[in-house]
Structures are given as C-alpha cells and as structure tokens.
Amino acid sequence: GGTAAYALIYVGTLHWLGRRPHNSFVVAALALALAFSIAACMHEAGYVSLALTICVDALFQVLIAHAFWQAFRRARGLVRASAAVVFAVSAMASLARAYAVVPAWHPVGAVLPANTQWLLVFIALLIMQAGCLLNLVNQALLDQLRSLADFDALTGLLNRGGLARRLRHRRAHSDGSLPSVALLCMDLDHFKDVNDTHGHGAGDDVLRGV
Known about the structure:
Blueprint: H1 2-16, H2 23-43, H3 46-75, H4 78-100, H5 108-150, H6 160-168, H7 191-198, H8 200-209
C-alpha cells in the first residue's frame, strides 16, 4: 500500500511538473514490492519483506526529491525547495527504518521498538509531505490568479494593472535613481475593417500575431 501510494505521488509529481514518468519502472517497482509481500506470506519473513519494501519506497522518495530539485533549479521557489528537502529526508529516514527492522542485524527484542519509533518519525514526515504537496497546489493557484490579474488573456501582454504594478516596484539604481522606462504605443490601421470583413476571431488572430 505504501509503495503504491508513493508510485502515485511520483507519477503525479512528474505530470504536475510537465514531465513524463517512466511507467515501466513504476510497474516493475510495484511488482517487486508485491513479490516481497508474497514471499513474506509464504516464508514468514515479515520484517525482511517490510525492510525491502521500505527500500522501494525510499527509491520513489529519492526520485520525487530529485524531480522537485530540478524544478527548483529551473524556476526557484521556496515551495519546490522545501518539497525536495522533505522528500530527501524522508528517503533517508526510510532507509534507516529499513535497517532497523532487519532481525539478522539486531537483537530480536529490539526490532519491534525500533520499528515503532521509526514509524512515528515516518508519520510526521508524511504530514510534512502532504503539506508540501498542498502548498504546491496553492502556489499554482496563486500564480494563475496573479497571471489573470496582470496579463491580457488574448495577447499575453501586461494589462493596465500589471503594468502599473511593475512600474511602482521598479528597482532603484545604486545611486537611488529609478531606471528609465520606454513605452511603445502602436495603432493598427484599418483594424475595424478586419473585424467587419473577416470576423472578430480573425481580428483576435491579428492581435496575437502583432
């Protein structure tokens, strides 16, 4: 179940970031986790199966962290950076939990308490992961609203409000003076004839082309 959840997060993250996931790898990882579970049922190797499955989870977490890190390097942003850090820390915690629950490496009586402690850590990290993903959705909605408020939907140019806001927030030079601004005003001759003759759809195409 955990592996399936991380597989979905991995696929959803790549789609969200505009990348194509490696579907064959996802299917192979899920099949591997399922094989571990079946082997545990047949040979009563529950903790070994758990450790191996957690390692597959850690692999997905590393891939998710890498995807967010690449997105941060392209577009920056605190939300992307925090998501990369949280999933990277989760991967390390998963590997530590996998090591802690292998009976051959620890006294028999220490495995269950160690798994309980790491499970609590993992639950806390899950909450942080959910918070990061929720922040990503909220950030995307805010960016969309900001774009609608500042840009003309037809041409993609700044509208009056967006231009005014950028003029107000110009960065001053080192001597304190504001940078100069050039404004180009264009008038399309006979544009009304285009709309009247060919329709407003053609007029929109002309505006976008110009």
